[in-house]
Design goal:
Elements: E1 8-11, H1 13-21, H2 28-38, H3 44-50, H4 55-67, E2 71-74, H5 79-85, H6 125-140, H7 145-153, H8 157-173, H9 177-191
Antiparallel strand pairs: 1-2
């Protein structure tokens, strides 16, 4: 079982560059895994539990990130053992209590989140700040001041993306489907300002 293995995934320089500046233009599913690792979900089990995507897709993408050197293995397990641990299993039904080889409960996912867009690094920074601050004010009211301050303090699109990820994770934890849909619309609007 993966949870018994002592290995963890770590971001490589290449993975960090992708998160900071979207250097390699990875899709949202790959970036989601990188963000999870960056935020502390470094074991295979925790990535599966916290990802917004189906477990079989996560397995394939973790393998791809390892092969392309965006992430590396750290800890006591040799890479061959970790590769076996990440081998795809037969997909479990969504309502099954546990997957056949992972022993994990299928994560509760918000359907709209599966296509949640990422910020385009070429989009207008000032427009991104304005639209995200406006969203925070509309959604959180005066309780959103810390998020507004974080957006306004962001020095580049990578920093704005990190704040956006925090906002999204908060909404996802609250299961706020309508707010997530509205946030995705704002991100698409921001991306249309690409210069």
């Amino acid at each position: 079982m993966v949870s018994q293995g002592p290995f963890q995934f770590v971001l490589t320089l290449k993975g960090s560059e992708e998160l900071t500046s979207r250097t390699y233009r990875l899709d949202v599913k790959l970036r989601n895994i990188l963000f999870l690792i960056q935020k502390g979900s470094a074991t295979f089990e925790s990535i599966l539990q916290n990802s917004i995507f189906p477990p079989d897709e996560v397995v394939d993408r973790v393998r791809s990130l390892v092969n392309e050197k965006f992430i590396a293995l750290s800890g006591g397990s040799p890479p061959a053992e970790a590769e076996r641990a990440a081998a795809p299993a037969a997909p479990a039904p969504a309502d099954a209590a546990a997957g056949p080889s992972t022993g994990l409960r299928a994560p509760t996912r918000i359907p709209a989140a599966q296509s949640f867009p990422a910020l385009d690094p070429g989009a207008s920074l000032s427009q991104a700040r304005f639209l995200l601050c406006d969203f925070c004010l509309d959604t959180f009211g005066t309780k959103g001041q810390d998020r507004i301050d974080a957006v306004n303090g962001a020095t580049g699109m990578g920093a704005v993306q990190r704040v956006l990820d925090d906002i999204y994770e908060d909404l996802r934890a609250r299961n706020a489907r309508d707010a997530i849909t509205a946030l995705a619309a704002r991100v698409r609007e921001i991306n249309e300002t690409k210069v």
